[in-house]
Design brief:
about 120 residues; Arc Repressor Mutant, subunit A; 2 domains; two-stranded antiparallel ribbon; about 5% strand
Length: about 120
Amino acid sequence: MNIIISNSSSEPIYEQIEKAIKQAIFSNELKEEEMLPSVRVMANDLKISFLTVKKAYDKLENDGYIKTVPGKGSFVAPKNMELLKEEKRKEIEVHIEAIIHLAKMADITEEEIIELFKMMFEGEV
């Protein structure tokens, strides 16, 4: 797993790590029960604080993406498909809000947006 962090991003480093690990889980780059690098190893690899990686791992564990076994390490939790689906729903909502905002600015009707969405979803555009 290759995690790239940006010091110039407004997003905190622990959130960048969390997002990268989630993406690796979503894309099946990280499989169920696969062991993650230890907090210390990842901190050394990324040249960041141990506490920053620990914060990302704690958040991932609280959200159900990984599980930690004392003395053994952290592992990808069995996929909760409803949890994954909900995460994607939230992401889609953000994009829909942006679309609604743009449509209102351009005086485009709800019906026009729905028709455009249907055409694109069906692959006609």
